[in-house]
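Let us work through a complete example step by step.
Step 1: write down the sequence.
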Amino acid sequence: MKLAVLNLCCLLVVPSMLSAAPPNAAGMVEKQSVMGPLVVHAGNGRYFATPDGKPVWLTGSHTWATLQERGIEGETPAFDYEQYLGFMQHHDHNFLRLWAWEHSQWMQFVDSDVHVRYKPTIFQRTGPGVALDGAPKFDLTKFNPEFFQRLRERVEEARKRNIYVSVMFFQGFSVKKPPASPRSGNNWHGNPFNKLNNINGIDGDPSGRDAGHELHTLLTPDVTRVQEAYVRRVIDTLNDLENVLWEIGNELPASSVEFQYHMVDSVREYESSKAKQHLIGMTGAPVKTAELMASGADWISPPGSVWTDNPPPCDGNKIIVVDTDHCRAMKYDPDWVWINFTRGNHFILMDSYMDFRVGSPKQPDPKWNPTRDAMGAARRLSEQLDLSHMKPLPELASSGFCLADPGTSWVVFHPGGDSLSVQTGRGRWRATWLDPITGKAVSHRDVDSAEVWVSFKPPRPGRWVMLVTKSLQQR
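Step 2: predict the structure and record it as tokens.
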């Protein structure tokens, strides 16, 4: 193919075209429009949209203690949620997962004599009798007001900062998981549905394997009825809020597929008579991508490293939110942000933040900052574009990473190399090199192309993002 070669390495340095909106006196970005509830974009099923049809690209760091305290009793400091939201805003993130834990104590990653606790619990601890963790037994007919009050407060606080919240109902790590060592704790021992932990005679482990693997199935009607009541209570607590997304559960067992399908249907049916309806998500690992795609969920988070390294272009049949928790847990790479952005996916980061498992540091690990910042840069770019008509077209760029509305705009990720070729077609274009970490425009130039393909030379070696749009003279 014949290329028009353009050297853009010595061009004018321009101010960032992707600067964040300034905070107000309270440090919060003022709302520009109604946040939601979000819907699937009517013309482009890859993206969320506000009620007025504006496309929304979601990204954010999430961590494990966003809803309930989790840590070692007497050692782990309380989670500072306001500080966390400030951290999110600092990096220009707009999405978090509100982690729900169903059990009260123990973790499979540490010894059983290390009492990792989760509170407040979903159900009240009324007794009579003592549960396996030494506290009063649970009454599965009585919800804990402290849990639901905190749930609402945390979603409201996120809303003040224009942050969307994925509200998680169930937790795959609240049943027995493969232990890190023979001495590791068994999370099932702290679960309210363990027959030794509740006063209601409900047994979430009918096989007697001391694991609770039947908890997230439809095998025990008494259990399912309590779970359905809990889901309804969560919906009643949050239905009027516009920044809510539902998430059936985090990494529920492979046997949970029909249970999750049932809960997707239950949530949708119950909300249908409510003032607002919110989108429903289903996430993977160990549930497979094909099972997620076959679900009635509106958005999914599929498992496997392919989703960070070289994901398939999103076809718009489901909104895909790539979550490193299910792909590359506890790892980070700013390339993953742009790889997914240009493949039509949303991107969220399982962030170690200041968790007790990394020593409860006073500040988040700065080594993660390039990825956190790249997420914010991609979000700001998404707000400069009209995503309504953009789709992943890897064949239009030599790098294979291209999101485009051909004839109007192209976003191309350049992971490295001496040149980048883009199929623009003939015309006059403005080509801008963007720093993938900061989002700042480093150089730009209007170019005339008489060829279908144009080759660009980056300003210097390394990773880049290129934005190609119609030249002002051509518009």
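Step 3: interpret the result. The first helix runs from residue 81 to 90.
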